Amino acid sequence: MSLVRLAVWGDPISHSKSPILHAAAYRALGLDWVYERRQVNTESFKAEMAGLDTNWRGLSLTMPLKEEAFRAATIRDRHSELTGAVNTLVFGDVVHGFNTDVGGIVDALRDNGIQALTAVRILGAGATAASALVAAWQLGARQIDIRARRPEGAVEIQTLGERLGVEVSVSAYQSALSPVDVTIATLPSGTTLDAEIAASLASSGGALFDAAYAPWPSALASVWHDGQVISGIAMLFNQAVRQVRAFVHADPERELEDEARVRDEMHAALSGDIRAE
């Protein structure tokens, strides 16, 4: 029997917890699949892709490769087409591209009791911010406040909001703030905002969902004293479940056999790794 291979690619990649989650899932499913990590940047992506043989079932992609993966996919799901980002490639007769980040954010918020939204603030304007906007829209939000260091760089995400029928405003961090239900931070790990700006965001930002998880608590989570705080680990876990579905069924919406048990095994493995740090 040929070895089935999978991996997560990105740069940097040593911090990724995806191998722990995926290994636990395939053990629980009784699949002898190998899931690795590999440091790959945008310049080396095409050459690395060309070097994969038929043993490869698929790839998970993290920054800065989601746009590269989008271009590499032959067929893309709706979330990928909306966001211009792919974080999951499944190989076969054609290359299928999926964006499981959107579903991962929706699942993470719902798991933490947030079932519906009206107004949302998103910090950042990159690929994860686009996924956050689509997730917020799916949960009912029709007012999105984007905060970015360079508001002029948020044109694409503002256009996405318009396509979805969402009212999107784009401002610098220091601009006046209105209250929102949830703040979704999509800033790079380790980002520290000016103390006055962070305090202002926290005072009007509702619950905080921070896509970052290492280090934790993030600088922003540390000052979010009055509202609920949700770590990016929740998104990581849920998007990984959807990736496993994609690798097994070529469909991130189709549940796994005995999925509750698989999720328990993945959660136990992740919790054990976090305690060991």
Detailed description of the structure:
By secondary structure, the protein is an alpha/beta fold. It has two domains: about 140 residues, Rossmann fold; about 120 residues, 3-Layer(aba) Sandwich (Rossmann fold). The chain is about 40% helix and about 20% strand. It is built from eleven helices and twelve strands. The strands form two sheets. The protein has a six-stranded mixed β-sheet, with helices on both faces. It has a six-stranded parallel β-sheet with strand order 9-8-7-10-11-12, covered by helices on one side. The longest helix has 18 residues. The protein starts with a strand and ends with a helix. The model has no long low-confidence stretch (mean pLDDT about 95).
Topology:
Elements: E1 4-10, H1 18-28, E2 33-39, H2 45-50, E3 56-61, H3 66-72, E4 75-76, H4 78-83, E5 88-90, E6 96-98, H5 101-111, E7 119-123, H6 127-138, E8 143-147, H7 155-163, E9 167-171, E10 182-185, H8 195-204, E11 207-210, H9 219-222, E12 229-230, H10 233-249, H11 259-276
Parallel strand pairs: 1-2, 1-3, 4-6, 7-8, 7-10, 8-9, 10-11, 11-12
Antiparallel strand pairs: 3-5, 5-6
Helix pairs in contact: 1-10, 1-11, 5-6, 5-10
